[in-house]
């Protein structure tokens, strides 16, 4: 054990900071392979030879026939992955689970796309059961010709597909000033990223013909809360989609089947699911969901309203709260960065609680308003550390700290739009914990 | 490696996205899809209220006294006696003045800038177990009762479209428009203030 430790630190002495001292070829191989710590140890080669392995037996799977192909089936993950689930939070527990949420296991998401079965949920009256054969979208109000579109009408249009993240404005809600949540799933799991397929809303607005003075749209769902939001017409015309597809298949019921709005870069709440009606008006509706909820407390008892864009943010997902490091050595810090205002330009990582920062590597593809992965090789010396990431987006906006946000906002109670830098502490024991303070 | 194949597939998809943005800019495909509908066709689902001026509030009327009765039958189980909090939801009364403390209490009385928000929300979403089952009269009565508990409609009072839109809500001027980006963080690389400060 001791010898292993010693040779490891000898091996990394030449590394200097971050990954820069890895021979470029093995670094490329390492980055391409996407392997985690084990890969890194092998790639750095000499001086890192592990204890001799036991003889390797022929695995039973080599010695028997496997499961045959079902004539028809929807494939499911390995039974060994049954622990990977989206979960309700155990911090802010609602008294019921119809108007409630479940969170994406970001620490177990190994690429930029969130699998559909793990995509976070937020409903206001549970998940409705809607037959696409009977579902219609009505567009009316300040239009020249009110129309009703069936699902087959909508699917006759040429389709558009876009990769975008979606984040709930309440993401991070429980962890502003004290660590309440244990894992990154609980602190940041109201976030997912998918390829969305549908049609631009502007095509249908063209078809119905907007009347002069049309400025706002109402989006309304066919769920038990008839969830509704007011959307400014500029955004609706610019890039709002009506989607029926998510990651190559039809939407899951919990994500709006058979039709939802998708508003790139904005809080998930406005991307109304189970969309059944769009009404055009000259002013916003000021519904409960845009006054009593989804507004931000501000100084002097005020509330910030219609704060819909999700600003630039990042978080380290590996290592993150609840994980355990196994002794000093090389670790790859990994995480996600995203911005509702554009692409990610850079991500910096700190190992000392924010005193010094170093630039991480961004992994392709780096797409507009999409999760972007970052990586940073870290040689942990076994001492206490406080790690965090800080993203910069294409507008030049730098991810702030809670202290920065507190200069303008009132951080009290049910606070939305938490995009602050989020630190994790590493104890000498290797224990990783939420370190927001 | 496999991961590289995936990356190039995604990159190709990104190019496709860019191409389709152009198609979008060029305008909608000229498909004559969609079926005309009249106001009468959609009356049953046309439930929204423009809450700042009350446009969309239906005819009808309801009293505080009737509201109390309906509440006891259809709402008390989840919201508790006098809307003070029950098995499924917290209090719906009080909170006015609390926004100047660090324990802001959000209720229809303290939070809604316009009274018709209450009508709109109850009609579309409550009772949670049977949404859109109430008559307009029942919704007026329940709104009158909840606003009475919040001191905004007198005992023995009632509400209709006109009186409801005329109520001066305490939080009428409590909202400011989105003025973000509000944070001006700088990209400090060394000798930076630690995160906590």
Largest sheet of chain B: 2 strands, antiparallel
In spatial order, strands of the major sheet of chain A run 4-3-12-7-8
CATH homologous superfamily heading of the largest domain in chain A: Oxidoreductase, molybdopterin-binding domain
Global morphology of chain A: globular
- Counted by DSSP, the helix tally of chain B is 8
The string of secondary-structure elements of chain B, in order, is HEHEHHHHHEHE
Low-confidence region ranges of chain B: 1-26
Radius of gyration based on Cα positions of chain B = 25 Å
Largest sheet of chain A: 5 strands, mixed
Descriptors:
heterodimer; A: 437 residues; alpha+beta; Immunoglobulin-like; Sulfite Oxidase, Chain A, domain 2; five-stranded mixed sheet; five-stranded antiparallel sheet; 8 helices; 23 strands; 14% helix; globular; disordered N terminus; B: 197 residues; mainly alpha; Cytochrome Bc1 Complex, Chain D, domain 2; two-stranded antiparallel sheet; 39% helix; 6% strand
Tell me what the structure shows:
The complex is a heterodimer of chains A (437) and B (197). By secondary structure, chain A is α+β, with helices and mostly antiparallel strands. Helix content of chain A is 14%, strand content 28%. Chain A contains eight helices and 23 strands. Chain A has helices spanning 2-13, 24-33, 37-43, 151-156, 184-188, 201-208, 233-238, 402-406; strands spanning 100-102, 121-123, 136-141, 147-150, 160-167, 191-200, 216-221, 228-232, 241-246, 249-250, 260-262, 275-281, 296-298, 302-305, 313-318, 329-338, 344-350, 358-359, 361-363, 372-380, 385-393, 424-426, 432-434. In chain A, strand 22 and strand 23 form a beta hairpin. With 197 residues, chain B is mainly α. Chain B is built from eight helices and four strands; from the N terminus they run αβαβαααααβαβ. Chain B has helices spanning 2-25, 39-42, 64-74, 76-79, 108-111, 116-125, 136-149, 161-166, and strands at residues 35-36, 61-63, 158-160, 175-177. Chain B has a two-stranded antiparallel ribbon. The two termini of chain B are 44 Å apart. Classes of the chains: A alpha+beta (437), B mainly alpha (197). At the A-B interface, strand 3, strand 4, helix 4, strand 5 and helix 6 of A face helix 1, strand 1, helix 2, helix 6 and strand 4 of B.
